[in-house]
């Protein structure tokens, strides 16, 4: 078993926050685990580089650390250790051309789609609460593009782009937003409740923190199927996306605890955009460094620059591989920013224009474009072709949604139950309510 | 205290200006932890402060319902009167426009069934002012259910309502419109619908009496029954799920106390028995409209099937 901190070929290292680098209380134990699934008291076991075979071995590790926000707060705190993964900047090629173009296309799709949503909202085609994702595309693309189709994603109300990255067609998402029957939820869910069984998108939840236990449950199922039901090839990973405001909510802590306790294959992705509607993260949180909450529960906590898709992708690779190989959960804090207000109804008066400008200058799409061109992975012409293609996709989605029919009257009462008659199906294959004895019960009639 | 009540001026701008007027010690922006801050409010009330806890919508109160029911409502009873909990939980309740299933539920029936709580549902501006003041002055926990769509409506206000100590009694319904043929009870936004329905019915020669319940718990059974004894017909109107709703309780109360006076079966108008759909046309079908109330009133008068 390799030592915990092999600085050798791989270089991705997890330093638990709050400890000196030469002590490694969480990761030094090399006992062979043989415990049962539930209630396991296995110590965390850091795997060697060879296990993380998804990762290109001649790539160095990538992630950068600290945001300016955190630096400011840090100056007041006593501990000066935090999680750092260093990148040797430009010299190493991190992605291939195909991967680069795929990432670019996905981010452009997210951005173009959200911009179109804003237009459609102001024209009255969309209504209710619409929460746009502009500026945060690197997180969605960086993580979700590494998943298989069977892996699950659970999101919050800011879920359009998670749906698109996971593979839900733009037409289906746009129709759903217009409230048409051809939407991914037949028009019944809406902007905040995107579900797709085919693509394993488990929602879209309105309450913050609500999706985290659901995601933890999906991860539980994956592990249960592998270990208890003995489906050996079931190694599905779940990603839970949520924001900085959620990290003060009880459900978050409860799930961190259980996921670490039972070593569930889940990655908790915090999209820290510093604002929860109008509440600044610094005003709401006693310790704003969210990634530190991971080690408190026994899992690694990583902070990454969420405006840089390549860095996010590299961290994601490690975390997802960790989950997939059965080593348990990871907490990843992506420092990112939303360029628009909380929702389209938010006047967005409280955020400092200087802060907005600071992050606008770090637009993830511009950064990736620059990287691709500078490293000769793509030309301007190719990227412009992608821009055009996505523009057409989004316009086609709008046309499709416009032409789709509204739900019929009879759809109002459908889908309340999975079993339409409400009582379940008996052993003879008929609905129980059709069996006269069942409805009699045991009463003496 | 609540989310966005201070610097953001309130998620629906209800608490606008309060932070400047009273300062950050009295207007607290909380993190997003309903269970936590509802509990903190209840605890503060145990010790004699009078907190007003805002839920951005009452849907979020489900995360704090343990404190509303177990820590607040039941405490006076469990402590045999030693502890009183003068806390007010307020916020938007019921359906809005296009906000989906998780933002549209009405909690009047759930909270109304719990002893120890007082549940108020204002309709007009006078109701809101008088009832909220009464709620804050009340020594018991009060759940104050407002409505997002009513926030934007204006109402005429009498001079006495502008007085700074204007209070309305808790537990008294208001007869918004007198009539003699059929009683229509409603609360919150649907009082407006009921009044419109009464106008339409008046043109057809049916004089409807509209009761604005104002208080779900304690329910003003006396006013409702007196009205039914006068008109002998009843239509109850509410916005969300029919089963175990406010209308069901009113029906039961009228059948128990005024059965002999009823000339027709009681009609219950409620929302569709489905989670609120997002699509605009489905949402319209899921919430009672004025035509539904008119039809029901006519049915009680045997003017139609």
TrEMBL record, chain A:
<comment type="subunit">
    <text>Tetramer of 2 alpha and 2 beta subunits.</text>
</comment>
<dbReference type="GO" id="GO:0006086">
    <property type="term" value="P:pyruvate decarboxylation to acetyl-CoA"/>
</dbReference>
<keyword id="KW-0560">Oxidoreductase</keyword>
<comment type="function">
    <text>The pyruvate dehydrogenase complex catalyzes the overall conversion of pyruvate to acetyl-CoA and CO(2). It contains multiple copies of three enzymatic components: pyruvate dehydrogenase (E1), dihydrolipoamide acetyltransferase (E2) and lipoamide dehydrogenase (E3).</text>
</comment>
<keyword id="KW-0786">Thiamine pyrophosphate</keyword>
<dbReference type="Pfam" id="PF00676">
    <property type="entry name" value="E1_dh"/>
</dbReference>
<dbReference type="InterPro" id="IPR001017">
    <property type="entry name" value="DH_E1"/>
</dbReference>
<dbReference type="InterPro" id="IPR050642">
    <property type="entry name" value="PDH_E1_Alpha_Subunit"/>
</dbReference>
<keyword id="KW-0670">Pyruvate</keyword>
<dbReference type="GO" id="GO:0004739">
    <property type="term" value="F:pyruvate dehydrogenase (acetyl-transferring) activity"/>
</dbReference>
<dbReference type="InterPro" id="IPR029061">
    <property type="entry name" value="THDP-binding"/>
</dbReference>
<protein>
    <recommendedName>
        <fullName>Pyruvate dehydrogenase E1 component subunit alpha</fullName>
        <ecNumber>1.2.4.1</ecNumber>
    </recommendedName>
</protein>
<feature type="domain" description="Dehydrogenase E1 component">
    <location>
        <begin position="106"/>
        <end position="408"/>
    </location>
</feature>
<dbReference type="InterPro" id="IPR017597">
    <property type="entry name" value="Pyrv_DH_E1_asu_subgrp-y"/>
</dbReference>
From TrEMBL, chain B:
<dbReference type="InterPro" id="IPR033248">
    <property type="entry name" value="Transketolase_C"/>
</dbReference>
<dbReference type="Pfam" id="PF02779">
    <property type="entry name" value="Transket_pyr"/>
</dbReference>
<dbReference type="InterPro" id="IPR029061">
    <property type="entry name" value="THDP-binding"/>
</dbReference>
<comment type="function">
    <text>The pyruvate dehydrogenase complex catalyzes the overall conversion of pyruvate to acetyl-CoA and CO2.</text>
</comment>
<feature type="domain" description="Transketolase-like pyrimidine-binding">
    <location>
        <begin position="1"/>
        <end position="153"/>
    </location>
</feature>
<protein>
    <recommendedName>
        <fullName>Pyruvate dehydrogenase E1 component subunit beta</fullName>
        <ecNumber>1.2.4.1</ecNumber>
    </recommendedName>
</protein>
<dbReference type="InterPro" id="IPR027110">
    <property type="entry name" value="PDHB_mito-type"/>
</dbReference>
<keyword id="KW-0670">Pyruvate</keyword>
<dbReference type="InterPro" id="IPR005475">
    <property type="entry name" value="Transketolase-like_Pyr-bd"/>
</dbReference>
<dbReference type="GO" id="GO:0006086">
    <property type="term" value="P:pyruvate decarboxylation to acetyl-CoA"/>
</dbReference>
<keyword id="KW-0560">Oxidoreductase</keyword>
<dbReference type="Pfam" id="PF02780">
    <property type="entry name" value="Transketolase_C"/>
</dbReference>
<dbReference type="GO" id="GO:0004739">
    <property type="term" value="F:pyruvate dehydrogenase (acetyl-transferring) activity"/>
</dbReference>
<keyword id="KW-0786">Thiamine pyrophosphate</keyword>
<dbReference type="InterPro" id="IPR009014">
    <property type="entry name" value="Transketo_C/PFOR_II"/>
</dbReference>
